[in-house]
Structure to design on (1364 residues):
């Protein structure tokens, strides 16, 4: 029973097929091949606007390079206090930006509120010695498996743009968000004030497919060169493009995400029925139940794979654990987990 | 007729098969999976010593991260004046090392001579304001398709180590070098004074498989963290491992390289027979003929794909062009080229 | 009435005399002059151990360079949540360390407690993706005008050293601390576990005299080169040395600090007698009274120069203001302030 | 007999007087004081245009920060192959720009020629993997004691601006250049295409007075913040301003430079009369005679202080030595040197 992470899954069949399909013959290197050009056009269709699409090896690189391209000396990045960018990326954003500071904004269930962002901005006046507000980074779906609605994204970017911030969305689980929200990709991104999106495919059925999708070229400087200098230009770019082709064709990506989300809902329902409290609303492919220490140990003994998340707001003998579903999670696996519980 | 670059080829069948073979089921992320562990052990066998193996997305990243892990403030990297690290990587080494300076050492046919390295080192005394000698980077095979023998590598690392330099080998075409030299991997690397090797698989039949192979952990600091911070830790690491498994099994990698090298020899022989001067000895999978402008234009008109390289040492109406062969280059293609000539 | 900052004062007469005294003739540049050598020896005497002394232009540079010399990729610096290093230096530490993250530790009156440091360290395990604990930075006297005793410094460095942290002391107001604590400089620094001290002279009567005093060369790497590369090597170093000579001779520095501290005590006493609450104990040359908005405005209208500090723990119509005394603050000025109040 | 460097001299009397004059009382910190404001206005008058003036601790910092403010990822700085920025600053420019590469342009007697700059630019096409041409840095007076005329500066900046480069002048010895050229400061700087000047006072009679004088704010980004983050904002800024006031009043700076230049001429004349070849025209305060090894040793034995410079173009038993004069060099000293010769 594998609920440790969605990146423990391999690649979906459609993605593997596309990889195989595009392997033959020769193709120009460094992104000048026809598959890459075709996929870039696909992204433009998907987002209903002109976009620049740049692949990177990882979501960490995508996030950090987006920050690099808007970096200023002594700049400040505002992100939620559980943002992957802040907590889980080994200081990549700080490194790529030559030392921007991340200002963690208090977030409930991973979701930042406009008033908390405003308050954080109020504490950092322009020209102050603490630093210069420069960027906002939102995660969608959040690290707690929750979502921002279109209006909520807009409310946050409104606050940010009033101070001149560049607005970034970390979409490592963008597909899972979209599958639930059921809105157009454009609505939740550039139409809601987002300048640049880390569009993740890896967690949702690709093996290595991450793209920076840039909506506002003016907001970013020299992004392509930042990426090149960081060693994130695949020479055989067509293999990433092939994955994205398989991923995007026939809404395959949304199907994969819907599957994962449904498995999460099934898990959540079973947990609730078993009287287990769930820390935050289950809106994507992650479930965060509050379990007793005894139950945690029993599940581990049973071979269930998952991570403990935090003890915030827990009783003395409890912890919040994280259960992640993916396109490969089966109903049987969920049922087996619930039985083990 | 495609002689533009070896990275225009796709992946070999054996590599694609291995990818497909390891796609099923779940595996721990970030390199903790059994395939990655097995492949690391393979590298240890291959090099006949304990090694640390770290994947990166590109050869550029591998080179630059190796430099980062031995970086010193105001440090100097000694490399040939045509080194890929210096000339073709968008300043990656400078970026990752926070501003080390690359000192280009004059090289004939891409090969640095010990006396020129000595002279360059003599011009940069320790503690001087020009900077602090820190690392040597050799490319094997070189950017001009030539090779260093074991003795030549040793002679250069002897000079370097006498000044305390860390010795790096850029092995983007390591397989092509080994296929010709016919020596043990250990002999041309750590036994010859190399501390860390960028082991490239991508140009020779993988689609994305680059590894840093570290022989002297003591010479490098925090390399794993440098890589993590740079966003070069694949979450689904097993897919790189799978490629390496297919690549290394049954000496597949050397077979691929031998094929490419043989095609280069056939090209060189045909060119020589046609009275064309070749700028440097053909020892790997690259051929650098000196062609007249008329011939260059005619070949292009014929649809032959290749890059002009330089006009150094050429007559007024000539240029050196670069022809690269790969595991996919066929004899027919070579013959067609020679006929077009 | 000037209580805005101690760096609004000029230089003391003894310091200016020393500057004039050492101006004549020629002296080797870049710190090789006899005055600099003599002053370095003075520092060794003062701290009763071998030390390396390196001047910088500012305290900000001293702090940041100390961090640079112990930097690791993805490294974490633990400092109080009001640390100058974190809040007031335009991101210098982040820049010089190529992106280390500062972890603010909750502090009461500017003073970090060992248990809070322990808790913060517990949240950042070695090898974790948040980063690698690397350094502790304590400010003495703190930004709130309070002090750490020898035992308190020791308790904090004990916690830090158990995790392998390098221990730094920001001594921008080191003289003011020493004047109150009345301990030997060695006792409160290296004997209490400090590896490197930013020894500030500027705020206390020099015009530009800041020094890094290194006790544990092994804990820092290439510090001299870090400084050189940052453009902080004065060519006419003797002028900084001259200031330090005037500053240190005959305990002039402690006399200056005692004067400033006494003025702060007099202020505090007057405020207390006037029924004003003072936010934190007055132990150096800073006083932080809680004043009503009306009083603040009245004082400003009166031409009193000072900064508002925060509203933390204040009533709705109050703020904490900061009053800083210096070697130039006169009793008359203090009395005038109290009268204006 | 001291001809080692102009930075072995102390400060001129007028500069010391100005320092003493402005020491009294209180003044706002960080450059908001009236002396600093007055001196900034002086610079505007001097250069006959609006300028931004920012002090730094050293010329190295000034040069490097100018580069930082126009930095681009993978950017290239074009400078002469003996430029101080490239050869003598411990890699500061590379550090501050996060890894820009310096492209050394061949220079005769320190002076770059437009055709050589053009050729170097032709080798680095925009978007190429070697890097992105970003800035030109000229030294005036050059490191070889020679000068660029107004037309020569203009010819170089024309070439640079055609490729969009920011044009920087390293004026560590700007006064010495101006004293000889006898042109208006505006003519040799912004009117000749210079965007930013490192205006050095230290070598010519200040003890620590270096300023970045910015003519084209648009060409540079966030320069003030770059400086702040680097720890180069003096809190007691008035002391640098005081030096500049003494330095600039009544053309004192040009008088000092004329004195030094005249001493150099006297040296050159004596050397020529003694049959000694001088490597490059003597146009500022440096003389580079070609001396036999025997003579060099004899002069050293005599206690003459100077540096050997190079052996380029020398006979087997010769070297070029560098003799630097300053405002403190006396005629007697020159005569004594010539006698010792």
């Amino acid at each position: 029973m594998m609920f440790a992470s969605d990146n423990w899954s391999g690649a979906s069949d459609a993605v593997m097929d596309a990889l195989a399909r595009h392997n033959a013959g020769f193709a120009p290197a460094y992104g000048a091949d026809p598959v890459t050009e075709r996929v870039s056009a696909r992204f433009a269709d998907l987002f209903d606007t002109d976009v620049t699409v740049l692949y990177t090896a990882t979501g960490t690189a995508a996030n950090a390079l987006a920050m690099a391209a808007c970096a200023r000396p002594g700049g400040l990045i505002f992100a939620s206090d559980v943002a992957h960018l802040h907590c889980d990326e080994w200081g990549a954003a700080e490194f790529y930006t030559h030392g921007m500071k991340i200002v963690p904004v208090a977030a409930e269930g991973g979701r930042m509120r406009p008033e908390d962002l405003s308050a954080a901005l109020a504490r950092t006046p322009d020209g102050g010695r603490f630093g210069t507000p420069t960027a906002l980074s939102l995660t969608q779906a959040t690290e707690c498996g929750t979502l921002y609605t279109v209006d909520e994204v807009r409310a946050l970017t409104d606050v940010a743009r009033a101070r001149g911030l560049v607005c970034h969305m970390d979409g490592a689980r963008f597909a899972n968000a979209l599958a639930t929200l059921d809105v157009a990709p454009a609505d939740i991104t550039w139409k809601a004030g987002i300048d640049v999106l880390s569009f993740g495919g890896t967690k949702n059925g690709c093996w290595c497919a991450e793209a920076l999708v840039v909506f506002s070229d003016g907001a970013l400087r020299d992004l392509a060169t930042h990426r090149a200098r960081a060693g994130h230009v695949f020479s055989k770019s067509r293999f990433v493009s092939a994955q994205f082709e398989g991923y995007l064709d026939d809404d395959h990506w949304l199907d994969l995400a819907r599957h994962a989300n449904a498995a999460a809902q099934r898990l959540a329902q079973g947990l609730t029925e078993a009287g287990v409290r769930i820390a935050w609303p289950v809106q994507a492919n992650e479930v965060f139940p509050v379990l007793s220490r005894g139950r945690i140990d029993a599940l581990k003994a049973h071979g269930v794979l998952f991570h403990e998340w935090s003890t915030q707001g827990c009783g003395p003998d409890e912890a919040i654990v994280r259960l992640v579903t993916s396109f490969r999670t089966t109903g049987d696996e969920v049922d087996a987990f619930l039985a083990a519980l």
Observations:
- Chain B has two domains: 13-251, 252-340.
- The first helix of chain B runs from residue 13 to 21.
- Residues 1 and 56 of chain B are 31 Å apart (CA to CA).
- The first strand of chain B starts at residue 52 and ends at 56.
